[in-house]
Amino acid sequence: MKADDSLFRHTAQPRTVSIIGAPMTYGQPFVGTDRGPELLREKGLLKDLASLGWRVEDIPDLDLDTICREAARQSNAVRLPNAKNSIEVGAGCSAVADLVESKLKLGNFPLVLGGDHSIGEFVLGFVSAIFQPCTYSFDHTAHHFDRTGLFSWDNAC
Length: 157
Hints:
Layout: H1 3-7, E1 16-22, H2 36-42, H3 45-51, E2 55-59, H4 64-74, H5 86-105, E3 109-114, H6 117-130, E4 138-139, E5 144-145
Parallel strand pairs: 1-2, 1-3
Antiparallel strand pairs: 4-5
């Protein structure tokens, strides 16, 4: 078995990566994180993935501004005092989860392009709950994966 076969054992053949743009900004105070999906596409991500032999399904970015504003407008929930825009972030993450789940059920590899860190943390937790046992570590300060061995591809989904 090749390393690729083990790493992507949940992905159907021919291997398809579903690009999901999640331009979230509600989990932090800085402007610009919502441009992440656009900029990654502009810099050739889709072409690079295709050059690796993957079929690429490019899904239009989720309209998280509308989804999040509508959720906040309709919500009677109490906002969490220590979480920035908790209702909006929850609604945005829920929309991403629905799309990720539908792509996983098709045997595709969902690649979520954020957005702020709230999307990344949520997607990792969501996918690990589906494909247990999955372990990961996330550095909340620097917003990057811990490369010290706590995140092991051998034990991951």
